[in-house]
Specification:
Largest sheet: 3 strands, antiparallel
Structural class: alpha+beta
Helix content: 10-25%
Shape: globular
Low-confidence stretches: none
Radius of gyration: 13 Å
Number of domains: 1
CATH architecture: Alpha-Beta Barrel
Strand content: 25-35%
CATH topology: ADP-ribosylation fold
Number of helices: 3
Strand order of the largest sheet: 1-4-8
Number of strands: 8
CATH class: Alpha Beta
Order of helices and strands: EHEHEHEEEEE
């Protein structure tokens, strides 16, 4: 299992979560009943598929060990296992949040993933 998973979120929504101490999810998460995450190998496709052309986003790195049994890897796109969190994401479980800007080609520019 990956030790770090990633969440792409609108900056304003993330800022509200930081102030509250927990991220409850974006509208799609709330509708689906879990918070969607991606592994490092999945995040660029997730950004292109679900966040194309959107600016003012953040990429949040999350420590899987801090999430316990509420985190499940479940089949999704093409049968690949995606991390889903059934519950709120405590801000204390995050390693970092970094800007995810759009590049000149309209694709997101991902930050270095190191801690």
């Amino acid at each position: 299992m990956d030790r770090t998973i990633y969440k792409i979120a609108p900056r304003a929504l993330w800022d509200e979560a930081v102030a509250a101490g927990a991220f409850l999810g974006a509208p799609v998460d709330l509708a689906d009943g879990f918070i969607h995450f991606s592994t490092a190998a999945q995040m660029e496709e997730t950004a292109a598929r679900h966040f194309a052309g959107l600016d003012d986003l953040v990429l949040v790195a999350v420590d899987t060990a801090a999430l316990g049994i509420a985190l499940r890897f479940e089949p999704s796109r093409g049968g690949a296992l995606f991390p889903h969190l059934y519950g709120a994401l405590p801000i204390a479980a995050t390693r970092w949040a970094r800007p995810l800007p759009l590049g000149p080609d309209g694709r997101h520019v991902f930050p270095e993933l190191g801690d």
